[in-house]
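sry for the spam today, last one i promise. struct tokens for design, 201 residues
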């Protein structure tokens, strides 16, 4: 499994060269670039549908709005106290899969590199990233749900994009601070599409 660091793309090139020592330097750089882009522009998977960043932004937020409104209806009312003046956000998970099509664009007409790239993705990639490295996570963190729902959403929600299938995601810098007494966010997992295909035709 190749480790693809989205924060430090140069380390991905080292990984490609280590795993495929016979590749020319330029070819290894193309594969590394394709891997980085496939992670940064990963496809969101929600209720069996795939959403490309950024063109499907409106479609995904509209699809998510329905579930958020439903969760708000069934959730127990939040009682504010002096010790806990703010409610804990409800966490919603959205699946991610590598964006083969976006990465493939770097490989132009090189069918041999496209085949290798597809094999690498199918073999599994560990994406290491910070919160701002992945397009969908960056966007979901900034959605104005009050505006999208015409003021109907009053609860706080936190949307978490997580890799699934053959891809593994490791978010860097998540070590909790010592002595923190804040409760963890309530988590409501959305079942990702288990059989989502990594490779797009």
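last one done:
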């Amino acid at each position: 499994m190749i480790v693809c660091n989205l924060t430090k793309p140069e380390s991905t090139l080292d990984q490609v060269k280590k795993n495929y020592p016979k590749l020319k330097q330029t070819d290894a750089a193309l594969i590394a670039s394709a891997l980085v882009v496939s992670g940064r522009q990963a496809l969101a998977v929600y209720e069996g549908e795939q959403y490309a960043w950024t063109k499907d932004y409106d479609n995904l937020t509209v699809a998510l709005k329905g579930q958020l409104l439903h969760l708000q209806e069934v959730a127990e009312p939040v009682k504010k106290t002096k010790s806990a003046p703010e409610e804990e956000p409800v966490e919603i998970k959205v699946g991610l899969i590598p964006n083969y099509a976006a990465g493939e664009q770097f490989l132009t007409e090189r069918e041999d590199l496209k085949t290798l790239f597809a094999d690498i993705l199918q073999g599994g990639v560990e994406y290491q990233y910070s919160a701002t490295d992945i397009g969908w996570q960056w966007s979901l963190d900034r959605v104005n749900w009050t505006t999208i729902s015409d003021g109907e959403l009053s609860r706080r929600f936190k949307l978490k994009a997580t890799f699934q299938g053959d891809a593994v995601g490791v978010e860097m810098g998540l070590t909790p601070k010592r002595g923190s007494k804040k409760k963890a966010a309530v988590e409501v997992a959305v079942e990702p599409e288990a059989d989502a295909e990594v490779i797009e035709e």
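The longest strand covers residues 90-97. ok im logging off now
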